[in-house]
Amino acid sequence: MRKVQWGTAVLLAIYMCILAYVCFFSEGYGRTAVDGYHYNLIPFREIMRFYTYREYVGFSAFMLNLFGNVLAFAPFGFAVPVLSRMNRRFVNVAWLTFILSLTIELLQLMLKVGSFDVDDLLLNTLGGMIGYGVFFAVNHIRRKCFAR
Fold first, then answer.
1. Bridge partners, residue 117, by sequence
2. Is residue 105 a contact partner of residue 113, using CB atoms and an 8 Å limit?
3. Which end of the chain, C or N, has fewer beta carbons within 10 A?
4. Global pTM value
5. How far apart are CA 82 and CA 132, in angstroms?
6. Got the DSSP string for 35-77?
7. 3-state DSSP call for residue 26?
């Protein structure tokens, strides 16, 4: 394994530990429900709710819900193609990001920790795709500038 891949594997392991902490153990980010466990199975429902009530929940809560989920999964979308040439296809990275997000959401549903939200699946997968886009751009620049 090349040094870049090894370093990426270490960073991905650290990232996965932080992601697990935030999703399952952190007191913040919706981990504690005030009046019972909540879940959302209707696409765009929570996104629209946060947008509609952004003045009440606060701009930072709105931005955290929308962009936090996207940004949280961008590193995964960047790291996967670095680790494996087989996963350098956009579809593979999108699929793997969706599977990771679905696993987290289903665990939250079964363990009643946080909340299962189909919008999170959409936003997390979008984040992975954005991470892949960054990888693709960086890899393209690397190949042009450092080609031998």
1. 40
2. no
3. C
4. 0.88
5. 10
6. SS--EE-STTHHHHHHHHTHHHH-HHHHHIIIIIHHHHHHHHH
7. coil
